[in-house]
Amino acid sequence: MSFYKSISKSMPDLKLKLFQARIDQEPEFYVKKTFSTALFLSVSLVIIAFSIMKSPGVLIIFPVLFFFSFFYFLRFVDVKIQKMSRNIGQEIIFAGRFLIIELQSGVPLYNAFVNMSKNYEVVGGFFAEIVEQVNLGTTMEDALNDSINKSPSPELRKILWQILNTMKTGANVAESLNAVIDQIVRQQQIDVKEYGRKLNPMAMFYMMMAVIVPSLGTMMIIVLATFMGFTVPLSILLIISAGIGFVQFMFYAVIKSQRPPMELD
What domain range includes position 214? Predict the structure, then answer.
């Protein structure tokens, strides 16, 4: 068994994640590409750091840098799934209500799916796939099952599951969807309230770690250098600036990732 295959085998859900993220690659190839990208990035950064600092000591950071880069890029599939799920979450209430109105107006389920695919950019893509499979001869139940497996969004899976179960039992699809949509709206309202409670301590932590501590630390280094009579190398200041920028970027990414979809009405 190859090295890349053994790593992919240790992540049994990777194949499903690649499927949901619409990444048309085998897990082994994805791990191999991630390994190569992390290796190239690590070598490049070490070469740049060595050219600036002129010290062989920078080679010590290579293993840490490679390890961090490899697992960071390996999570790209999770990031893509999360982004797709957020985009779906911004449309899911509108799309769900649109579907309910279509069905209550007497539009057949297949035609309602066609209209959904034409009116909603993100959610509509999943319904367009269902329509395409049905046109190729797949039954509506099988097409819905396949779309449920492909969906990266739990909200969309709830709606598709509800449609599928209602079709099997012969109940009214529009009435069943109303209950699911109301549940999704309540969950989004809860998520917004939780986000508001998290935002204040996160903002305080950001001010401490990304603004106050770096500013005071840099000022103390300059003052100590002045009193002790040595010059702070430009490379050190550049490294500090890059570190501060990285920390601020990470805080921004964390805050943005915690922000829930804002469709509530």
Answer: 187-258
